[in-house]
Write the structure tokens for this entry.
Amino acid sequence: MKRSTVAASAVSAAVLSLSATAVGHAAPVTTQPGTPCPPAVDRALSDTADGAVVQCSGGRWEVYAGPYPSSDRWLSHGDGLDLHGQGMRNPEMLSGPWTGIPQDPADRCRAEQTAVVSAGEVGPPQVAEGEPGQPLRFDVLPVMFSIHLSGDCLWQAN
């Protein structure tokens, strides 16, 4: 009886291992310096787990060398990406039309921005959210204070 229980446990473990592999359809995004980045995100900026800014260049993530990160291409992943706009000094994301492009058919892009409404006052969050696998088109406000970009998405100015 013990032998069949051990064999059944081994088979169950193997099936669970295979199922976990089959269900995962995309590898987690890794934006650590020196790791590969896909050609589709070339020139995009992102962040690392410890908050450093990196840029995809030549197929690899590199530490961003500039003093103030600002780009027309950003990659969000994991817990998302927090940026500030023209409602503050040294904006990381400029106003205008932007598109969030999911990096996997199951991903959903979401942008939650706040804007300066008067001196020292920020208005309520404005949320734009796309459907799974579909691009999200939205406008970054001219006085955007901050924005939280979420989903495994490439964000680019149009």
